[in-house]
Amino acid sequence: MNNFLWGVATSAFQIEGNISNDFTDWEQLGKFKNNGADPRYENGSNHWDLWETDFEYLKELNLNAYRFSIEWARIEPVRNEYSQSAIDKYHQMIDKLISLGIEPVITLHHFTHPSWFHDLSPWTESSSIEIFTKFAQKMVDEFAHKIKYWITFNEPQVWALAAYGDAKFPPGQKDLYKVMDAIYNILYAHIRIYDMLKSVDNNIQVGIAKHFVVFKEARRFFFDRNLVKKLHQFFNVMILEAFSTDSLEFQFPFLLSYNSFIPLDNKIDFWGINYYYRLHAKFKINYKNPIELFAKEPATDMGWEIYPKGLKKMIKLVDATNKNIMITENGIATEDEKLRMNFIKKHLKIVKSQMKKRKSLIGFFYWSLLDNYEWLEGKSKRFGLIHVDYNNNFKRKLKPAALLYASFIKKLSTVTN
Q1: What is d(CA 268, CA 240) in angstroms, rounded to the nearest whole number?
Q2: Which residues 6+ apart lie within 8 Å of 392 measured at CB?
């Protein structure tokens, strides 16, 4: 337990600001207006300028780990041209974390891409593997001697569904087979990066942060129960199984039939669990869209149902893979701080109990350190332990829930030392 990673998680684009990529291009083209919310990036939380201040909070919160991502578009804004100044700044960040006694946990891909990527070689094309792994090789060459924990991809299914399922993320296409092709190529890139990192140091730990959702049938109805099984298989189980079966496979009558060999060879050291909510599922007699998903008791500003027991279920599910587990994201969007504190208490209670039962559980990361830009929602949804005043030079202030989390870590560390 003394080596347990207590941290917070962020993604580069959501907090850094001062960047141009496929998401800022999408916003400028007015594409997000089609989704209703019309989110404005406006430099995220300006972490790129204020990172040193933000890192001081990490120590104040008794954290010993920090999960963050590197913005590909900042490193390679033009194809095959790398920004040394950006690389140097990430070095400064990593060195500062290490000096503070905080374990850096790095994510290579967290939803965003350079502006040139989708037109040149989108994830639906096999050439994308080479293009992304070339960027990854550059990052490995720069940082592998400093960083033990690497997450190759954050939520590949969520990204693929948003980009090629409902077309809300760039490149904005609707084709379920492209969803699967993108997932396939992303997983293939993971294999390449895994081998790359292991060739540098076999002790480096490589994983994927995967979104997990608890699905519940809306009615005691055969078709609803069967739908829940299908959703669980696709969203929670499919990729886990692919690593042991070397096959990416999913069947949904009339919508999708996909089965492709992929030489994953169980090349993963840990699974990241991103867990937030439960969804209820209802089958509809609709050839094109037979699925209705909804929250029965939405309690967060995202309209998500709070269901802490689901975290235990997902830990048990992933533990069956015999790999280590990190809770790489768990958090709530709310401006009701009592609700946030209650959310944290209930989920940390489960984490504490699972730590005792499962040696495979090695870390927990609250999402997020800062209020930030939320995909499709902009800055109206506040997940952070630190309040960001967007109208006052991004001024920071610790929320009560941050102190609660810090106190929990301190007490637990005192008991286990």
Answers
A1: 10
A2: none
pLDDT greater than 80 at residue 177: yes
Neighbours of 182 (CB within 10 A): 25
Q: Which H or E run includes 138?
A: helix 127-143
Q: In degrees to the nearest 10, what's the CA dihedral of 278, 284, 286, 288?
A: 10
Per the prediction, the chain carries an average pLDDT of: 96
What pLDDT is recorded for position 416?
60
Q: Where are the beta strands (DSSP E) in 120-200?
A: 149-154
- Distance between CA 24 and CA 21 in Å, rounded? 5
pLDDT for residue 415? 65
Segment (H or E) for 388: strand 386-389
- Maximum CA pair distance of the chain? 59
Please compute the mean of the pLDDT values over residues 236-242 and round it to a whole number: 98
List pLDDT tens digits, range 371-391.
999 999 999 999 999 999 999
What is the Cα–Cα distance from 104 to 93, expressed in whole angstroms? 9
DSSP character for 201?
-
Please spell the DSSP secondary structure of 48-75, one letter per residue: HHHHHHHHHHHHHTT--EEEEE--HHHH
The per-residue pLDDT for range 138-176, each reduced to its tens digit, is: 999 999 999 999 999 999 999 999 999 999 999 999 999
Q: Which residue has the tokens 């209802």?
A: 282
Residue 286 pLDDT level (bands cut at 50, 70, 90): confident
- The pair of structure tokens assigned to 214 is 């608890």
Smallest CA-to-CA distance from 357 within 331, 405, 325 is with 325
Contact 372, 384 (CB under 8 A): yes
The structural domains of the chain, ordered by start, are: 5-212+308-416 (3.20.20.80)
Does pLDDT of 1 surpass 80?
A: no
| Residue 181 burial (CB count, 10 A) | 22
Q: Give me the mean pLDDT over the 344-367 stretch.
A: 97
Phi, psi (degrees; rounded to nearest 5) at 84? -70, -35
Calpha distance 386→202 (Å, rounded): 36
Cβ atoms 190, 227 nearer than 8 A: no
Distances (CA, A) of 342 to 236, 382, 390, 400: 26, 16, 26, 11
- In the DSSP assignment, the letter for residue 374 is B
